[in-house]
Write a sequence for this structure.
């Protein structure tokens, strides 16, 4: 089963520095690394911009991306994601980072652009933070993401646990599935299969067998701030730090009905990265 022909996505930038698939929820911890004694925040911001068209445009738009229309589509994508100076509490940057990670690590495919949930200028996007799929033989796996683009890991864990439990309740899911179905680009090759999976007549038990929730949490990291290059000591401390947060996360009251993947993205400074991303977007507006 195939999702169809699409443009190649950008090369990998973030490194998987720690992963755990033997216990639930799965853990994946990403690392931007260093260059010439500095954390690679500026390079990460530049890399994120390369993903804008795929993240913010409809399938029928970004599949046509090429040399002749790249600048035009990147500008359109930038306008779709970001139209306000009041960016302090917005979550689109985190959603974009989640999109990048699960595309590379798990080979997911975007089913819809969350930007199309925006109903008016500067609306924040409600619902799950990504809607991706993985095609396996004659069925689809549905990946519905949650993101907390925070500086404090404790707050990120606290807030996402509440959302995970709220967002896996029956009424919320039915409303979300209806919204997703209405946003599916009919030119996407798997549109009919996804619409059938999310149909009101399909039991939630059957849907849950096909659902994974990737949870991306960012935070200002003590380890990242204590080093200026990737060394054996850095790798050891990085692994220790993310495993501590993973154990805290999985000790909480997680919903049992779906598969969950915890993705940790330790940062040098969430605010600094946010400012760099803002600057990159301003160049295209």
């Amino acid at each position: 089963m195939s999702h169809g022909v699409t443009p190649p996505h950008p090369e990998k930038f973030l490194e998987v520095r720690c992963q755990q698939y033997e216990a639930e929820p799965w853990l994946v911890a990403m690392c931007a690394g260093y260059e010439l004694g500095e954390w690679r925040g500026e390079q990460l911001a530049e890399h994120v911009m390369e993903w804008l068209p795929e993240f913010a445009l409809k399938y029928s738009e970004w599949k046509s991306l090429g040399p002749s229309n790249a600048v035009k589509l990147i500008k359109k994508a930038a306008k779709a994601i970001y139209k306000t100076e009041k960016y302090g509490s917005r979550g689109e940057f985190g959603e974009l980072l989640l999109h990048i990670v699960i595309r590379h690590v798990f080979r997911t495919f975007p089913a819809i652009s969350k930007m199309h949930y925006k109903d008016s200028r500067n609306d924040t996007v409600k619902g799950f933070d990504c809607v991706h799929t993985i095609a396996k033989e004659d069925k689809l796996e549905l990946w519905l993401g949650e993101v907390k683009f925070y500086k404090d890991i404790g707050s990120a864990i606290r807030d996402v646990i509440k959302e995970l439990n709220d967002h896996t309740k029956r009424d919320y899911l039915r409303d979300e599935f209806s919204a997703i179905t209405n946003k599916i680009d009919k030119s996407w090759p798997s549109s009919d299969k996804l619409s059938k999976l999310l149909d009101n007549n399909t039991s939630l038990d059957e849907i849950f067998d096909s659902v994974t929730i990737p949870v991306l949490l960012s935070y200002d990291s003590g380890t990242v701030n204590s080093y200026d290059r990737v060394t054996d000591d850095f790798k050891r401390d990085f692994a220790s730090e993310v495993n501590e947060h993973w154990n805290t996360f999985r000790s909480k009251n997680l919903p049992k009905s779906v598969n969950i993947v915890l993705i940790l993205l330790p940062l040098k400074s969430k605010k600094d990265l946010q400012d760099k991303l803002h600057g990159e977007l301003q160049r295209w507006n």
User: Anything to note?
Assistant: The mean pLDDT is 88. Residues 43 and 212 are 30 Å apart (CA to CA). Residues 23-284 form one domain.
